[in-house]
Amino acid sequence: MQASLSMEQTPPALPEKPEPKAPPTPKPPPDRTANTINGVINAFEAIGRFKKWLDTPDPPKPPKAPPAKKDYMAVPPFDIQEIPGAMRKEHMPVAAKLMERWFSGRENGPDETSIVKLDWVLKFAHAKERYEYLVNTAIRSPEVQNNLVEMLFPYRQQIEVFPAKLADSPRELHRRFQFQHAGVGGTLNDNLIRQLRAGKETFATPSDLVAALGTFNFYAAVGHARFSRDRSSLSGAVTAEVTGVWVYVRDDYGFSEQSQYLGHWSKDGLITLPHDEAVTIGNPHVKGNVRYPVYDKDFRQWSARHKHGGDFVIFSDRLYVPVSPPIRLYLKGDAQAFEYKPLDAPNGDVEQVAGSTGRPGNNQAQNKQTNDVARILRLTPDQAQQLHYELGSEPPMGFHEIMERAKDMFDLW
């Protein structure tokens, strides 16, 4: 049959930005004398118009046009913009909403954050399985530990951090705090091809999830982390614990220039057929009986013709998932760690220890004495580092001199 998918239907109006309204022009004060005279004149004119209308005869009625002849042999067209309606008949309401959003939008439009709900996604068994894998296994993978350390290191001075309060949009949270994902496979094209290979050659309908998202990912972003500092370590070692994560779906919605098969469609729904031509089920002159093959490239052609059609990014709503036990991470401290190893000093120099009044003969020995002073005075890692920097620019000091200098610096007398 020589029939093709129509692209002639007028596209929906593009969303327009409201223009600011100009302030109203102030009206001049009314002239009561002029208003009275104008009112009398208008009354006489109205009476004259009414009298003229009474004296005018009714115009003759035009002859009725003959009814248009129906072409009973014509095949009713099926426009590509009718696919969302057909999706609803196939119980694909979410897929229909997303496609309508695409038809009515501009290229690279704003993120879509209201259509896809996580509760809806998790109703599908294969998606729920990947979600469970993400929250129970993947977020604890050793491969993501370094990413988490780098992500949380800037917040090591805080007691805790709530990333959702630091990000003003789903995109910002994703960019700054996402650290792991789990893929859910199966585009609409993949799903249809699998069914065809399995011998399901007719009336095989994919799920709403496959039609809406195809292949997509669940993502995990840090939801809450708390920090603790090892006060007994001069290195200022900090431990971070991730106690909760945000889980959500992110997906790119759009169409490619490729010939990916999306099924045979009519206004009545979808069937899967191993043919690249339109096929008829019943009388072809009844709208809905002709099924047209639809491909990704058809949407790109429609977009080029009408200057409509906008790809966009989908974010679902978020679900907070507690992490128990927490994911423990060890962050580097603010100060450099100093070793506490015994030292055989060269050239007859002897390492000085706490209680000695002499001056150490090398930098490593003084570093150890400085560390001992910092431990005794319970200096913070920042204070210990400041003390090392202060002493590094001066001649070597003995233990008691270092102790006095530290007390002077931090007012510990």
Which runs of at least 5 residues are low in confidence (pLDDT < 50)? 334-361
Residue share in helix:
25-40%
Number of domains: 2
The Rg value, from CA coordinates, equals: 38 Å
Strand content: 15-25%
The oligomeric state is: single chain
Taking the sheet with the most strands, its summary is: 6 strands, antiparallel
Cα distance spanning the termini? 99 Å
User: How many H/I helices?
Assistant: 14
| Secondary-structure content class | alpha+beta
**How many runs of DSSP E, i.e. beta strands?**
10
- The averaged pLDDT comes out at 80
SSE topology string: HHHHHHEHHEHHEEEEEEHEEHHH
Q: How would you sum up the global shape?
A: flat
Summarize the structure.
This protein has 413 residues and is α+β, with helices and mostly antiparallel strands. Helix content is 35%, strand content 18%.
Keywords:
413 residues; 35% helix; 10 strands; 2 domains; alpha+beta
Chain-wise SSE layout:
Blueprint: H1 32-55, H2 83-89, H3 93-104, H4 118-121, H5 125-136, H6 145-152, E1 160-161, H7 163-166, H8 170-177, E2 178-184, H9 188-197, H10 208-213, E3 216-229, E4 238-253, E5 261-266, E6 269-271, E7 279-280, E8 290-295, H11 296-306, E9 312-315, E10 319-331, H12 363-376, H13 381-392, H14 399-410
Antiparallel strand pairs: 1-3, 2-3, 3-4, 4-9, 4-10, 5-6, 5-8, 7-8
Helix pairs in contact: 2-3, 12-13, 12-14
